Structure formats: structure tokens, C-alpha cells
């Protein structure tokens, strides 16, 4: 079967500032919440010394200094799009300053100019699993309504600065993650109540709406979207109780998309709030701000799960509590591999939201072996991505409008969940060990040349496999 993606399809990869840049206190950068979780999303939160190196994330893969080399490698693969995030603390080190940090702004100017040399379009996330730590200690994070204004100032600043260089924007990375890790998502203590978490989420949704409106005003030819963690669940069995429990579980994350595409809270969440005694403070201005809806829906997809009314079957993964699917195999990190799930998810989201979709994270974390001759034969990664991209093609054939695909971690980076370099996603290998040793030298894996051929052929070199 011949495969061909749409002519204007955007091909590329996705990285995050706190997982690649390093230089965590260079050029005036402030401390972020990511800096204060040196062992990953679910690790200990520390009030750290502001100068000592305490985490592999502090240097990461040194993208801050090596970005020209990395952008050239992405261009060699044929990227037409690169998703990056701006570190809020490079622009406003504490988050509440009146004026931005010029050195931080200048860095992203240079980065975008480097990408422009190779005709790589930036897709920029405003907040990717980090915020100024000062906003947590002084204002209690997103639990404080004032943070909406601080974020709005930050968004306005970068929109005005990069309006001629960036035409694709995202507001918050995996915004539904706040339900599972409130410190990372909204800067709240992990023992916060449901009401506190949802109030902080409300403030973030309002801030997202304000950012959308500003983007449309300042950069009329730009597109701005949201970003969901696509944690789709299937019923574990056809029992009505399992089907309904699955429906409710999917509501838990789809609600974020409902608000951002429709401009108001869905009725099912109002019942949820009522039954869980959650009373949110929502102003008339909030309701007006929420009406500014996104242009497209973006999401990450790594795995599916099952829904059931039997909570004893749930297992704790390194991201979510979930019920495993007995019909699927799993990666080394326990993430179940389900290529058909991405086709199902694309259809589900398109039918629900009627907005163009952008797959902005998908990939396989694995322990790569460097052979004696320096090669890395990561056929497992090639198989994983081939099978997922075939299902993306199937969804496009189903009639789903898909803007593009940016694989997660086109270059090895520090994993978010546990701050590991041993969990590698890249097409490009980085010589770095968990103890921080290594030359940081870059080298091409087998998958580098595979992805290069996929992009060059616009998908024609993919090996077709039917849905399983």
C-alpha cells in the first residue's frame, strides 16, 4: 500500500527548555520549579543553593551553547518544524518583574534566527513543566490569581518580540498533568485539595484564554493551540460499569480541551464540582477571557490504558495511575505500546473538537547500546515510530485534519519523570552519563537516517501494517 502524507505536512521533533538547555543560572536566568525538582517530576522538592550544580538537568545536553550544531543536525534530517519551549525564567527571572531580561530574550532571537537559516518553523510552548519558583514561594503558584497577570505580561512580551519569527504557539504543556503532579503543573503543594488544584487550573485556563487573545491581536497571521496529555482509556470489559467508568476517566482530561475549544466549562464538570464540594471563584471577566478559543489542538501520545470500576486493578506508572491493557506489550519503562491508539485518539479528538490537530510528542524511550564501531542500531525505535506514523496516515485517510508530527526527543535529552539520560528518545545520541560525565558529543543513530528518509519521501518509505 502506498503512503503519502499531505504536501504541507510539518515534520520535525520536540524538545523542552528544562530538559535540554542547561545553563540554568546563566545570563540572568532565575530558578524555576524544574530546577527545584532535580530528580524529576515526582522527586523531592528542594530549596536549593542558587549556584551549585545539583542535578543533571543543570547542564543537561548544553543546548544553550550547542544549539547551532543541533539545529544543523535537525536540518540534515529534513525538519520543517521544531517544537521548543521558552524558559519563562530566562525572560522574567522571578516572574513578577516589570521589565524582561534582555539577555534571555536575545538567546531565543539567536535560536529562531538559526532555525530560519534552514527554513525550520518554530512551534513554541510558553510554559513547559516549569514556572518561576519565586511565584511559588511568594504567591503560592497558580493558586493566586495574580499569576494570571504575570503570565499575561510574559506572553505579551514574547509575542511582541518574536512576532516576525514565530507563527505557531502553544500555551501550556500537557495542561491536564496538573491533576497528577500539581507542583509541576500549577506550583501547588502535592497534598493540595481538589478544590485548590482546580482553582489553580481555572486560573491557568483563564491565562491561556488571555494569551490566545493577545496572540491573535499581536500576530494576526499566527496560530495558537493548547496541548493535552493524550491519556486515552478503553473499557477493560464490556460491562456497563466499566464502560461508564472509562467515559468518566476520559472526561477527566478531555475537559481541558472542551474549555479551550468551546470557551466555557462543560456541564459534566459542573456536576463533578458539585458532587465533590468544589466551589471555584469564577469572575465575569474570567468567563469573558475563556471565550478566546484556540486555533488547533495539540497533544502528546505515548500509550493508552484501560478504564474500570474496580480501582484495585490500577497500577502506579512513572506518570499516571492506570489500568494496564492485557492485550498490549510494554516498553522498558512500563509504557504500553499501542500504535492503533493514536489513530483512535486522532479520530476521537477531531470528532469532538472539530479543530485541526497537531501531534507534538510521540516517541520511544529506551536504553541504547553503542557498538564497538560507534553505531547505534535502534531498530526498536524505528519499528515503534513506523507503526505509529502508519496509523497517523490512516487517521488522515479517515478525514482527520493533521497539521504535523514532532517526535519527542529528536536528540537525547533528560527525561522529565525521573531526570534520566539513560532513557533515550533521540535519533541523535549524546555522549552523557547519568553521573554527568561524558563529552556531550553528538552522533547519528540508525533511526536518524530512517527518519530522514521518511521526511524526504513525505511518508512513502514507511512500511504499511494494518491496524492490530
Automatic annotation (TrEMBL):
Q: Give the enzyme class.
A: hydrolase
Record's keyword terms, sorted: Glycosidase, Hydrolase
* The UniProt record lists the keyword Isomerase: no
User: Where is the catalytic site?
Assistant: 361
What is the E.C. number?
3.2.1.86
Q: Name one Pfam family in it.
A: Glyco_hydro_1
Q: Which domain of life is it from?
A: Bacteria
GO terms assigned for molecular function: 6-phospho-beta-glucosidase activity
Q: Which InterPro entries does this chain map to?
A: GH, GH_1_N_CS, Glyco_hydro_1, Glyco_hydro_1_AS
Q: Which PANTHER family match?
A: 6-PHOSPHO-BETA-GLUCOSIDASE ASCB-RELATED (PTHR10353:SF122), GLYCOSYL HYDROLASE (PTHR10353)
Q: Give the family this protein belongs to, as stated in its UniProt record.
A: Belongs to the glycosyl hydrolase 1 family.
Q: What is this protein called?
A: 6-phospho-beta-glucosidase
Question: What organism does the UniProt record list as the source?
Answer: Frischella japonica
User: Its encoding gene is what?
Assistant: ascB
